[in-house]
Amino acid sequence: MFSSLVTIPIYTSTSYGFNNSEEGADLFALRKAGSIYSALTNPIVSIPEHRIAALEGGSAAVAFSSGIAAIFNKTISICQGSDNIISTTLLYICSVNMFKVTPRLFINVHIINSDNLEDLAAKSDHKTKAIFV
């Protein structure tokens, strides 16, 4: 889709024009690919996503503004209330701090001061969805 672009242009708009109301309706109904509103789709983000997917042989990719945003998204994607996450304190401190507030989402987080697999496994049970090391 964007393979001919060498340098990605900077789009300073947050919204995009449509040629007619039918095109706008098709874009918002996801019947047509294109940019709608920068909070949803944005060429500055979608071009690298398409390129990464192509490099990895995937059908799609999702870019995040930070590693913490990616970890949080994955956490809330795989967990629901009363599920468990196990984390070591030996991670990047922002990851540990994010996990400290995750119980607000009713996800139980066990943070231990070890990277020993046996210590981590000891905290695991049938509700454990992820172990971050």
From TrEMBL:
The protein's required cofactors: pyridoxal 5'-phosphate
Gene Ontology molecular function terms on file: cysteine synthase activity; lyase activity; O-acetylhomoserine aminocarboxypropyltransferase activity; pyridoxal phosphate binding
Swiss-Prot/TrEMBL keywords: Lyase, Pyridoxal phosphate, Transferase
Pfam family, one: Cys_Met_Meta_PP
InterPro entries, alphabetized: Cys/Met-Metab_PyrdxlP-dep_enz, OAc-hSer/O-AcSer_sulfhydrylase, PyrdxlP-dep_Trfase, PyrdxlP-dep_Trfase_major
Domain of life: Eukaryota
GO BP field: cysteine biosynthetic process from serine; L-homocysteine biosynthetic process; transsulfuration
A single Gene Ontology CC term: cytoplasm
Family per record: Belongs to the trans-sulfuration enzymes family.
Record's protein name: O-acetylhomoserine (Thiol)-lyase
